[in-house]
Amino acid sequence: MSTSDGKFGRYGGQYVPEALMPAIEELEDAYERYVLNNEDGFMDEFRQRLRDFGGRPTPTQYAERLSERYDRDVYMKREDLLHGGAHKLNNALGQVLLAKYMGKERIIAETGAGQHGTATAMACAHLDFDCEVYMGERDINRQRPNVFRMKINGAEVNPVTVGRGTLKEAISETMRDWATNVEDTHYVIGSVVGPHPFPAMVRDFQSVISEEAREQMREQAGTLPDSVLACAGGGSNTMGAFAEFVDDDGVDLYAVEAGGSSLSVDEEKGVAPNSASLSTGGEGVLHGARTKLLQDYDGQIMESHSVSSGLDYAGVGPELAYLVDENRATPVNVDDDAALEAFHRLSRMEGVIPALETAHAFAYLENNHEDLGDTVLVNVSGRGDKDLESVIEETEKRGIENAPDMSMFSGGLR
Ligand SMILES: *Cc1c(COP(=O)(O)O)cnc(C)c1O
Q: Residues bearing N6-(pyridoxal phosphate)lysine (predicted)?
């Protein structure tokens, strides 16, 4: 799928300032040697650490009540059971280990909701690296538990105050740091975004999800799924869940984006009340890659929105944009309310509290199960513990159906 120039059809590439090229070239070389060619047994060590430290393989579980509700077989790939509570560790561990093989001494990362920063901080503690995480000031205030987790694992958290103080600015700051400290520093990017080789490399680290799931479906269901559903922010759990099924013609792939509060945009204010870049975005360059993104007529990146901060990003991985153009993957979206309803439904019906990001995939299943075939696989990208406060707040505010009564906390949980 990936070619050596890092292009996926029209998308991808290396749109970076000159100062970053040495770092990119060094990383490209390391990616080819250690990841693609397993030099020095890199991939073997990666797999073993994923097992011993990460807890892989994660189960593929038959969802009994959902299967009954939708009158078809529903399976859940339980990435919420990976160490750290989300798929993020697959990539963070892979990249920090790669940095070790490259002889780097310092790790930097960006984080939005704090999930990737947390996974990176854990991987750095595990492999004995110094770790600095750039995080928008606004996100620091919204995601305090993850800030605590990073600090407790020994990472430094650098507040980013420019712009809106969110993920987009944090990525730009981290790239700046990388350009000035190329010699001893590796930048662990958090999704299948950024300049080549990041999109291909992050996909390779995450594809353990579909490698396992494909085998588990064969064994447990005796068949491959008719459709695979995964939520898409930057697209790393999506690409991880899709990768090994891409060549299976009978398996339909659905990337479920955040429809936010509306699919329409306010061009004048530069605001999109959604994060549906695959469904509604145009072509442009963001963070080193050509891809689909939310932009205004002047090419300025718009503010995005989602009730789930992990999906709140104006771009998407170039390979996913390519799979959509090739009609191999279908972009769909659900709105904030549907995601909140699905969050409560899955928690009550299956005893699995999903991340709000993940809940988007289950919301799509709820509304479209009749079109998804006899056997459906949903990637549970993460667990929802991190979201409890905001879910309770949002649920009350919006009067979400079927939500538990939380009035005993009225006046707020804080
Ligand atoms: C970060 C995150 C996402 C979104 O990121 P992708 O790169 O699109 O996978 C989805 N689910 C969870 C649980 C996350 O932490």
A: 88
Query: Is the model's pTM score more than 0.85?
Result: yes
Q: Which of 161, 183, 202 is the last residue before a domain boundary?
A: 202
Instruction: Give per-residue pLDDT as tens, 339-372.
Output: 999 999 999 999 999 999 999 999 999 999 999 9
Q: Tally Cβ neighbours within 10 Å of residue 63.
A: 22
Atom of ligand 1 nearest to the CA of 382: 13
Q: Are strands 7-8 and 11-12 parallel, antiparallel or unpaired?
A: antiparallel
232 lines ligand 1 (CB under 6 A): yes
Instruction: Kindly state if the Cβ of 259 falls inside 6 Å of ligand 1.
Output: no
Q: Is 86 in the pocket of ligand 1 (CB under 6 A)?
A: yes
Query: Domain check: are 263 and 374 in the same one?
Result: yes
Mean pLDDT of the chain: 94
Q: Is 239 in the pocket of ligand 1 (CB under 6 A)?
A: no
Distance 5 CA to ligand 1 centre (A): 26
Give residue for tokens 């890659």. 289
Q: For residue 59, what are the domain limits?
A: 55-85+207-409
Contact 110, 173 (CB under 8 A): yes
Give the domain CATH number at 35: 3.40.50.1100
The residue whose CB lies within 8 Å of the most ligand 1 atoms, and thus the one to mutate among 80, 381, 390, 391, is 381
pLDDT grade for 267, boundaries at 50, 70 and 90: confident
State both tokens at 203: 């996909």
Inside any domain, residue 391? yes
Structural domain count of the chain: 2
Q: Which residues contact 340 (CB under 8 A, 6 or more apart)?
A: 307, 356, 359, 391, 394, 395, 398, 400, 403
CA of 85 to the centre of ligand 1 (A): 11
